[in-house]
Amino acid sequence: MPSHSSPPLSFAAEVPALLAELGVDAARYTGGALKARSPITGEIIAEVSGTGEAEAGAAIARAHAAFLEWRLVPAPRRGELVRLLGEELRAHKERLGRLVSIEVGKITSEGFGEVQEMIDICDFAVGLSRQLYGLTIATERPEHRMQETWHPLGVTGIISAFNFPVAVWSWNAALALVAGNAIVWKPSEKTPLTALATDALLDRALRRFKAEGGSAPDGLSAVLIGGRNVGEVLVDHPQVPLVSATGSTAMGRAVGPRVAARFGRTILELGGNNAAIVTPTADFDLTLRGVVFAAMGTAGQRCTTLRRLFVHDSVYDSFVPRLRKAYESVPVGNPLEEGNLVGPLIDRAAFEAQQAALAEARAAGASVTGGGREDAGFGPDAYYVRPALVEIAEQAGPVEKETFAPILYVIRYSDFDAVLDLHNAVPQGLSSSIFTNDVREAETFLSARGSDCGIANVNIGPSGAEIGGAFGGEKETGGGRESGSDAWKAYMRRATNTINYGRTLPLAQGVKFDV
Ligand code: UN1
């Protein structure tokens, strides 16, 4: 924690310098109506100009026109643009990572980690640009061949949340660009600066791509700065066949049906209420580290944050006191200072939601360790809290909701089958884990009657997924999959082709139709 007599920390000089180095035009972040704040100090760090609705519509129309050309560029050439984006990200990792930390309040290694995740997905997408495979399928007709071809889809709309302000964009953007799509991005209103910086880096990559002789149309990528109204332009626009939206379940409930009503597609990555089961055979040192990172990391503001912990009766009294100690001692404070592990909440609303959930838990008879506001030396507009460990008897009330703050509900269990049911008895289905050395328990957790989540892990926490796997979850988490594996298919359209290379026209299913 900074001593109260040292000069107050301010980003007034650093933010414009970082933005300039990252290539953002100063006109975009001075004198605008949208105030960007750093949750570290609570101060306003920039005034960003918003995008008007008409302007947003025009950007989407331009992106559609760009798509019509970009789809004709061979996929491995499109991959070259993404490779150059990855190079820009490598070159600017420290600066962009630092800006992520300043704008979101992540500790330094997590700010850099976010940019690393962007680099990783670029690498993945470059490889993918030569692997957009379709199947060849056996046909029932002689001298025929059947195949699948994957084609570019159109403008991909990306709506992202504050907590991974740039990595989530990159999961979508890297795949969409390689797939032959144009991209239009509506970042969170809380994180416009990292969005502008990322856009500037893509711009540099585009300039290098063109300098190498690559052909990339103007308008291939756009950023819409603003609130719900600009988001709605993207959601409702007929030239946006795919909207990939990350955020709350409430947001997804609004976006999903609107896009579906015009027969657009969505990839929804919504709320999580992720759990872990600590079994009698768990390795407790490893489990403690896994639980602590997943529950307190990013100040509890990941979709994949660990929020529910089921601990077996036989180990509860040996394990939970160690956990309590970790909650009492974890260093909370300025995330840019080495040693601190928990930075601030994003804003006052997050703090109020955290306090309300704790009050509800207390009213339900829970015993709460931590959870209070901490003075990190930055005054009233910075919201630091000690992570809360909430020992509670039942999975009810606040335990069933996702509160985007570091609150871990701990519940005892005694029966493995019953705890599996409890594990799955929440509306969300993103990520999950089990800590065990019992192969039966581990395999059952991963089986059809085990975790009902999109991500299920053994002996690691639910957060911190790598880009190589498909990322997303079931139920109110929205069902979408982003990032690795075959998530790319959602960004393309599939055509089934049947080719007759014979001289006759046999019909399928033995149908006769001779005129
Ligand atoms: C999110 O919280 O929105 O698995 C994404 C993780 C990160 C991504 C989280 N790779 O925690």
UniProtKB/TrEMBL annotation:
Query: What UniProt keywords apply to this chain's record, in alphabetical order?
Result: NAD, Oxidoreductase
Matches recorded under CDD domains: ALDH_F7_AASADH
Q: Can the keyword NAD be found in this entry's annotation? A: yes
Q: Which residues form a coiled coil?
A: none
Q: Where is the active site?
A: E269
Record-listed E.C. numbers: 1.2.1.3
Family annotation (InterPro entries):
Ald_DH/histidinol_DH, Ald_DH_C, Ald_DH_CS_GLU, Ald_DH_N, Aldehyde_DH_dom, ALDH7A1-like
Q: Where does the record place the Aldehyde dehydrogenase domain? A: 34-494
Does the record's keyword annotation contain Transmembrane helix? no
Highest taxon above the source species: Bacteria
Alphabetical list of SUPFAM superfamilies matching this protein: ALDH-like (SSF53720)
- Single GO MF annotation: aldehyde dehydrogenase (NAD+) activity
Name the top EC class: oxidoreductase
Share what the entry says about its subunit structure, partners included.
Answer: Homotetramer.
Say which family it is in. Answer: Belongs to the aldehyde dehydrogenase family.
PANTHER family per record: ALPHA-AMINOADIPIC SEMIALDEHYDE DEHYDROGENASE
Q: What is this protein called?
A: aldehyde dehydrogenase (NAD(+))
Protein species of origin: Pseudochelatococcus lubricantis
